[in-house]
Each structure stands twice: as C-alpha cells, then as structure tokens.
Amino acid sequence: xxxxxxxxxxxVQSGGSLRLSCAGSGRTFNxxxxxxxxxxxxxxRGFVAFSSAGAYTTGYADSVKGRFTISxxxxxxxxxxxxxxxxxxxTAVYYCAARVSGSAYSPLSYxxxxxxxxxxVSS
Length: 123
Prior knowledge:
mainly beta
C-alpha cells in the first residue's frame, strides 16, 4: 500500500519556524517529483513548493519564496519543507504529494497524497 505521511505541524508564533516531513512507504519516491500544497479554511488547495525527480529543480509559490525550502532525503524516502519567518497567513493544512506527470503547480497532476498536517501561526 502506497502511503505518504506528513508530520511536524503545530502552533508557532509569527516569525517562528517549523520543518514538515513527508515519509513515503509502499514504493520509492526518489525518482518521482514531489510537491507541497496547503489549504486554509474556505479556500482551495494551493501550490507551495515542488522538487523534481532527483531534486534537480525546485519551485516555490511567490508568497513563500525566500522563506520556505523543500528538500529530500532519498535514503529515508522522505521530503521536507522547512518554513522560516512564518506569518499568520501561512496558517493552513499542509499536504505533500507525489507527481507522475503534468504541471508541478496543479494539484490535479499529483497522484498520491498524504493526510495533511495542521500549521497554525499566531500573530
């Protein structure tokens, strides 16, 4: 059974940091493009960051560029999202996902999804 499991979310004050983890099981994700998305209450799920297969290319939403960093540990079949200088508008449920083909920026391109982890940033 293929699974992605996120962890690392929580409550943090504005300006603080968190590192989210996404552990894969059931297959290797080392040669698969991975992405992070987030969904705030009443809003659509939106793109946050992606890492191409092999991590040769990364991309970020403008709202997180310079503050968030996506990385991968292939030995652990795990993808990370380091979030610095967090703002209240970053509050959302964060999801990791694995992409087989298509646009890195569209959730429709992603085949496997985790259950999500809540990030809450207080002002």
